[in-house]
UniProtKB/TrEMBL annotation:
Assigned GO CC terms: plasma membrane
UniProtKB keywords: Cell membrane, Membrane, Transmembrane, Transmembrane helix, Transport
Chief localization: membrane
PANTHER family named in the record: ABC TRANSPORTER PERMEASE PROTEIN, LACTOSE TRANSPORT SYSTEM PERMEASE PROTEIN LACF
Record-given protein name: ABC transporter permease subunit
Keyword Zinc-finger found: no
SUPFAM superfamilies for this protein: MetI-like
Organism for this UniProt entry: Paenibacillus sacheonensis
Lineage: Bacteria, Bacillati, Bacillota, Bacilli, Bacillales
Domain ABC transmembrane type-1: residue ranges: 95-311
UniProt-annotated location(s): Cell membrane
Topology in the lipid bilayer: Multi-pass membrane protein
């Protein structure tokens, strides 16, 4: 009995020593690189203030919020706010629209961003900066500015697209009173605005690849297409996987600016442009239902987290080196 007790105490002392040793090493590492840790403080504070502190508002999803009573004084309603949303006639439509649009955006953006990144790597360095600027510029434009650009194309009376169609004898169309064309319009606009950022991220990964791989491939007689398929894509596959995992987490969180401003919030386009985020916005501004809006937001966050964890687990099983953690 005493032998077992002594062995247990020895293991406990070794565990404490190991923990103390690791803590000392971490402290030494912090003192050595404290400047780098200091640089991260603004980012940490930003995330804490704007991402973690607002989590206290999660309770609104379970309350019948009244402005005169405040958050904590309002009555608890359990899951009634969730039930109100999911039993509504529009719940299935806006959830379907949100998921399908995001899947389309992810596929199109990934494919064309990779294509443009590979092409940027092939052109002369003299022109790379010009093409980079042209690709990246739409990323910095607000959706309000993009709306006016799209409006100059689609306006019934003065739109460039209607003038172009009139040259072929086609009657002008009021695009903002039709729902059918908008899935194509929104996909094109989203691709135009998003492709620059993703392409430059992939391009940064491509230029980090050692030129020795390409030199060896050229000596073996490989074509540019073969080098892109056998060297470039496999080498940046971890980067592609990470961006895809993060994008999958937003499948139920649509782009509010795109779906609200570009169709001009036209009720006639709701069947094909309305998503969860625009529906929640109208619930807040027109109905004033804070509880239901909070419930939907919580639903989006939880589903997004589950999707990220699931996608990361799937990638980890295929190749642990390509996963987030």
């Amino acid at each position: 009995m005493s032998h077992i007790t002594t062995a247990g105490k020895r293991r406990e002392r070794e565990h404490v020593k190991g923990f103390t040793r690791r803590a000392a090493q971490e402290l030494k590492q912090f003192r050595k690189n404290y400047e780098l840790f200091t640089l991260g403080i603004p980012g940490i504070l930003y995330i804490f203030i704007f991402s973690y502190l607002p989590m206290a508002g999660i309770v609104l999803a379970f309350k019948n919020f009244k402005y005169d009573k405040g958050i904590w004084g309002s009555d608890w309603t359990g899951f009634k706010n969730f039930e109100f949303f999911f039993v509504s006639d529009t719940a299935w439509r806006i959830t379907r629209n949100t998921v399908l649009y995001e899947v389309g955006y992810i596929i199109l953006t990934t494919f064309f961003a990779l294509l443009f990144a590979v092409l940027l790597n092939e052109i002369s360095q003299r022109w790379v900066k010009i093409y980079q600027t042209a690709l990246f510029l739409p990323h910095f434009l607000s959706w309000v500015v993009v709306y006016y650009i799209v409006f100059t194309l689609l306006d019934l009376n003065n739109g460039l697209l209607n003038h172009f169609l009139a040259m072929f004898g086609v009657e002008p169309r009021n695009w903002y009173l039709e729902s059918g064309p908008w899935p194509y319009i929104l996909n094109v606009v989203a691709l135009w605005k998003r492709i620059g950022f993703s392409a430059l991220v992939y391009y940064a990964g491509i230029i980090a690849i050692s030129p020795d791989f390409y030199e060896a491939a050229k000596m073996d007689g490989a074509t540019r297409f073969q080098m892109a398929r056998k060297i470039t894509i496999p080498m940046i596959l971890p980067l592609i996987s990470i961006l895809l995992i993060l994008a999958i987490g937003g499948l139920v969180s649509g782009d509010f600016g795109l779906h609200y401003f570009i169709p001009h919030d036209s009720g006639m386009t709701y069947p094909t442009t309305d998503i969860i985020d625009t529906y929640v916005y109208r619930a807040l501004t027109k109905i004033g239902d804070v509880g239901m809006a909070s419930a939907v937001g919580l639903f989006q966050s939880v589903v997004g987290l589950i999707l990220v964890l699931t996608a990361n687990l799937f990638v980890k099983k295929l190749n642990p080196d390509n996963s987030l953690w």
